[in-house]
Task: structure prediction
Amino acid sequence: MRDRFRFLSAVVALMLSAGCAPSGAPSGSDAGGAATGAATTTPPATVSSPPARPDAAGAATAAPKVAVTLFKNVRIFDGKAEKLAGPSNVMVRKNIIERISSEIIQSPADANVTVIDGGGRTLMPGLIDAHWHTTLVRSTAAQVLSADLGYTTLIAGAEATDTLMRGFTTVRDLGGPAFALRRAIDEGVLPGPRIFPSGAMLTVTGGHGDFRQLFEVPRIDGMPLARMEQLGAAIVTDSADEVTRRAREQLLQGASQIKLTASGGVASPHSPIDVITFTTAELQAAVKAANDRGTYVAAHAYTPAAIQRAVLAGVQCIEHGQLMDEATAKLMAEKGTWLSIQPFPDEFAHIFPPGSDQSKKMLEVMAGTDRTYQLAKKYHLKTAFGTDIVFSPELAKRQGALLVGLIRWYTPAEALGMATGANGELLALSGERSPYRGKLGVVEEGALADLLLVDGNPIADIKLITDPARNFVVIMKDGKIYKNTLSH
Ligand SMILES: [Zn+2]
Result:
């Protein structure tokens, strides 16, 4: 037993010392310490770290210096303002933006400093996608339902790394088995965005997200869960008690908010778009379960009737909303309900077979998009940006391009502000259930250091966002540099 303990201590000590040992490259005080090009979670090497020692008891004698990154000479888009700030310097200590100043910031002596000379480029908050499905982007629906969950999660991990390298440092996951991936990313196992998971989305029999086959009904009490339920993608609930239990199960697993589908949907086989799904009592049960745990419910809903029922039951964020009317917009404004909506790209008109039910539903939703954005502006609705890309790795590559699509209704600064500062406010609704401590979506002192250095001014030329590989020269998440093409 004692030997076993010694062995484990040695392993732990070796792991700790290996993590802070010099990797060969001197870090110095200039940009050389940062990662170059490829994604990496390894912090810059320190010059003062102790070498790894085979003697476990002697390891970890001197504490490694704290990591500081100094961005010099940048113009800041802070996630809210209409204009860039004047030339500034920004110091990040560990994972927090510690100081922003127009004066020169001296490198602290007690830290391992990486200096990035911004050369007048734009420093902005990492982008946030408020409607994402981490595990459903690269696989098709059939693949998700038929494959082993481990495989689906690995595929999703690869996509998560690409998502981060597109400059999206946070996603709000609105349905799918994302808990394990979030944990692995947060533990530094692989690069990826912060994830605000919902877990399985709650639906009703015949609702959006009920992907069961016809032979699976009627469901008899005691029957095994359907495949989508076993995977944690969606779960059918047909009473207030069942809603309570299933919502609490998601919260137990770490859901930062509850997602349910209050109306029919476009892609689901059994849910006409005009239907209302949950009863008021069921919606209230979900809201109670979420509120009691300090968080909120986000509801997928298109039609005025479905949206209004959800809002009146206490739902705090409506997903989509493309078929809303004036009275519904007014109600949402009164209640302070968020609208999380997508500017669907024009090619969505052709993604389903012409004349099919799904195609008709898609066209109806697309026709309502313009009107809904107009209503959102007219009634000053709190509006979030999300893409809701599912089952399409090709479209995922255009995640930033979809954001640029907002300039049909908003100024570039407003569009960028929606995907950063505004989305950060929406994420804050998770309160103590947020997986992350600190403010997101802004460049301000005290906020979490999720930052992009853009080669140009995205307010003057928002199209820069469409080519992240070229134009995002530094990508930082939680104070760690995942990309830096300026160092050499
Ligand atoms: Zn969705």
Q: What stands out?
A: The longest strand covers residues 66-76.
